[in-house]
Amino acid sequence: MDFHKLFRLFFFLTFSISIMSLWDSWQRTQQPIVRAAPAAVPQIVVPPNTAPNIATTANPEAIVVATQRKTQAGQKITVTTDYLTAEINTLGGDLRRLEFLQQRDSKNKNKPFVLLREQGAHTYIAQTGLLGTGLPTHNTVFTAEASEYLLTEGKNTIEVRLLATNVVGAKVTKFYVFHRGGYLVDVGYEIENIGTNPISPSAYFQLVRDQSTPEGASMFLPTYTGTAIYTEKEKFQKVGFPDIEKGNAKHSQSADNGWVGMLQHYFVAAWLPKDKVQREFYTRKLENELYSVGVILPVAAIASGQSAKISVPLYAGPAQTSLDEIAPGLGLTVDYGWLTIISTPLFWLLSYLYGWVSNWGIAIILLTVFIKLLFFPLSAASYRSMGKMRVVAPKLEKIKQQYGDDRERLHKAMMELYKTEKINPLGGCLPMLVQIPVFIALYWAILASVELRYAPFFGWITDLSVPDPYYVLPLIMGATMIIQSKLNPVPPDPLQAKLMKLLPIVFSVVFFFFPAGLVLYSIVNNILSIVQQWYITRGLEANVKGAAKA
Fold it and tell me: How far is CA 282 from CA 140, 189, 260, 547, in A?
């Protein structure tokens, strides 16, 4: 039996089945089935006589979730910048809709992408409020001077100010500051104590979302959707919806640094408080299948007649590694999986090549050539081993005929032949083993990088981050696998030989669901491998013929 081919067969099948099993497991654990429920906005109500300091307000017993009164609808305030179109509701002053004018919708690229929204059973909003007796929460009604705001030419920021109503003992103004050329929005409060007693409020900033998967998501390409918390000590912590629901959420509770966020494929929303300010983190399961992640910050004590201000930036936009420049660890929202150490330099090199050719598909081709050159010596040694196996194939066939069904003597004779011919029967597997981590790392780099979203190649390939809509590339890849298999020695075992012939079909079907950019990488890699293997094998066969004539 040809142990080299048997090992390859076993590894390929195991690899394929493992990927599909991992996908299925990930899909079940990270993206559970959503039960339809009417959308509702969770509310935070501070019980009477509760001291509004950070130590108590962060306690779950001090944050009570109630159902919003349906009679309160609020009015919409629209804000338009060069990057965003936002809708703020006067009920709570919540940010309830956010469109990205520079990003396209997942299903219709003629429409802008919408991250925050309340639509049907889907809820994803940004909420804030103050904790302290009588202070405004996100249930409080606010008033605004206008219903539409536009960032005009010559201005870099635009501010929206909302005045809280029915607040006793304080004048509270909530404000939003939108910036030109970016996705950062400053959100905060100005609090003036007009009462006779000092007040010591805290402010909460939270994101509320249901557990539904983003539009355009595929069950064959699952990605993480859920909450995240980052601190310098604990680093990046994913907190999935199932863990929150079961009460198993484990994350940092307090720190003087860090941020909270809500992640989905390609995009992130995160509250980014300034460092060196003590804060409390929390995650919660709310009513109506909603989940929240938030941070609570103290506001300095405000004496009678005095004022205080608190502001926290909200980043809501594409997840990119460059976000570390905005806040430490924010770039980790680009999820490259467990091979980040390989994916990161691969994507850096891919981006560098794109800067030269201005086409992500061509950049992938050039990257494949670079990787092939990097592994050229290793591949050459492997193909020489495989070429030798092909050359001695007739001798192996004679041994098989000589010993028939005597497996023990057949195996011993084959091992002696390998030793005589100086052949390592497993030598051809090494490049495959080495390139599998590269393949997986590139898979995540292509899948997780928003830069490749809607990135065209040529012709019908208008988005390298999704599968080929006509399955042309997977079929081409299957054809290259068939050609490559013709260069390999034929396994002496008939059953094994039949299974090897089925592998190109199996992999073509599997690759139907892979991003087109990754299939393109595989095609180019296979073509280069075919050329290299053909050249080496032809040289070995020519040497054998020359030796025979001599």
Answer: 22, 21, 9, 76
* pLDDT value at 401 more than 80: no
Q: Do residues 118 and 96 touch, judged by C-beta distance below 8 A?
A: yes
Rounded-to-integer distance, Cα 503 and Cα 508, Å: 8
Of the listed ranges 101-105, 226-230, 525-529, the one predicted with least confidence: 525-529
pLDDT in tens, 165-175: 989 899 999 99
Query: Which tens digits make up the pLDDT trace of 310-353?
Result: 999 999 999 999 999 999 999 999 988 788 899 999 999 999 99
373 token code pair = 């050159």
Q: Given the structure tokens 């509320």, which residue do they identify?
A: 208
Give me 355's structure tokens: 């800067």
**What is the pTM assigned to this prediction?**
0.81
Specify the DSSP class assigned to residue 91. B
Q: Which long-range contacts (CB under 8 A, 24 or more apart) does 337-342 make?
A: 337/440, 337/444, 337/448, 339/437, 339/440, 339/441, 339/444, 342/437, 342/438, 342/441
Neighbours of 477 (CB within 10 A): 26
- Residue 80: burial class (beta carbons within 10 Å; 0-12, 13-18, 19+): middle
Q: Which domains does the chain have, with CATH numbers?
A: 35-334 (2.70.98.90), 343-549 (no CATH)
